[in-house]
Amino acid sequence: METYDIPWLGLAFACGLLLIPISVSQCWKLDIIRETVIATARMCVQLVLIALFLEYLFNLNSPLINICWISVMVLFAGSSITQTCKLNLIRVFPRVALSLLVSLFFILFYMRLLVIRGYGLFEAKYLIVLGGMLLGNSLRGTIVGLSSFYDSIRKEEKIYLYKLSLGARQFEALRPYLQHSMTTALKPTLATMATMGIVFLPGMMTGQVLGGSSPLLAIKYQIMIMIAIYLVITISIMFCIFLLRRLSFNDYGVLNHSIFKGSPR
Amino acid sequence: MKITKQTNMTQNHPVIRFNNVSLSFKDKRIITGFSLDIHKGEKVVLFAPSGTGKTSLLMSALGFIQPSSGSIFFDNNELAPSNIHHLRERIAFVPQELLFHDEPVRDFIEDICRFHSNRHIAYPLTAIQPLLKIFHLKPSVLDSSLGTLSGGEKQRIALCTALLLKREIFFLDEPTSALDAHLKKVVIDYFLSNPEWTVCVVSHDKEWYNHQNAAIIPLEGYIHGNV
């Protein structure tokens, strides 16, 4: 089965469907017409550019360039996580980027070694495609996990200190916040995994089937990617919090507020 | 105020020594040059108007606030990151602001007793029963959620937890502010009567000052106005 190539006119018809939400927005005075147009235009331009760039990268297939590209993606993801979590960019960003890089390469290496053996580890079709997908999910999970950790510890700082004063080691006093952070970050992925195939067909699998693969082959990739996503979120949050521990707390276990962006202390 | 303890250092080794301690909050000096020796078994009550930094002194001795100058010693060992956990293992702290997770009292106590430092408390729920009785709490309070307790009940749960840990030093920050006159007397008599315990109290309740075993430490000379 060959992949059906959508003609440009067909794609234009697909975009024409946006007239419906735009009309709804106009009628209900939602004031999101401008944002809808800008977001759609941005999506189209960004995807065209990335498609051209990926074509170029796939043809070139240079391990060095592939690694550089994935590193750039990691740096952007690290910066995005740090800023979204309202953390001090200069101090926190390097550690966040390192934790993303380590978790990503651990999984990519493991998958290449034991699961997908058809590609080289640094081959563009493996590293950039799989790496990008994992990184995107890792970004989302790490933002949720880190935000939840720091929000809860800031909100309950006095309870945390009270536990330290009652003899808790730092890890013991932090345990509820670590648990909350991890479960908050992983629950959406768990819910997705639990309902996949019944409530919805996942994007990767759908894309592969439309692209000509058999459903059986498509679900193998889907299972692999979901487990990899679950793992990459777990490892990146754990590693992130571990690397940020020395920055986040002083030698007496007290929360260091200078880690937060714009904090007076 | 009938007893005023000498705040200069004595020659015996004190359990706690504040040595010329100054504290600042957001670049504002709140305590300057505070010195005090507290010996084993002594009961001291820090006295000053509210909002002037008394609590900060207790927090500094727990390592939660770093002095801008001066030092704090426990048994001649200067408070430092290397020994802070060991020192906290010797102290039971009852904070002024009693913030708890909304969980059953039983879970809260079991959680505290599960800390590595507190594993010597073999049967915490059996051990706490007599303490509940002393402070006029019913055993059924263990099944109540902390969020539903009154301020006075929370205060007594915090006091019972502190006692359960069998520490030698007690830091009590306004520990009787939500109690009626009778319960205040019960708590004050209990904490100030054991000769083995070293107790440092911050309180506005006159009953603490009037107790025969309490030594009053006025802080007028060290404070710089409201925090």
TrEMBL record, chain B:
Keywords, sorted A to Z: ATP-binding, Nucleotide-binding
Cell inner membrane keyword on record: no
Matches recorded under InterPro entries: AAA+_ATPase, ABC_transporter-like_ATP-bd, ABC_transporter-like_CS, P-loop_NTPase, Type_1_exporter
Domain ABC transporter: from-to ranges: 16-227
CDD domains the record matches: ABCC_MRP_Like
Gene3D superfamilies referenced in this protein's UniProt entry, alphabetically: P-loop containing nucleotide triphosphate hydrolases
SMART domains to which the protein is assigned, alphabetical: AAA
A GO term, aspect molecular function: ATP binding
The UniProt record lists the keyword Zinc-finger: no
Top-level lineage group: Bacteria
PANTHER family tied to this protein: ATP-BINDING CASSETTE SUB-FAMILY B (PTHR24221), ATP-BINDING CASSETTE SUB-FAMILY B MEMBER 6 (PTHR24221:SF654)
Protein name: ATP-binding cassette domain-containing protein
Biological source species: Candidatus Auribacter fodinae
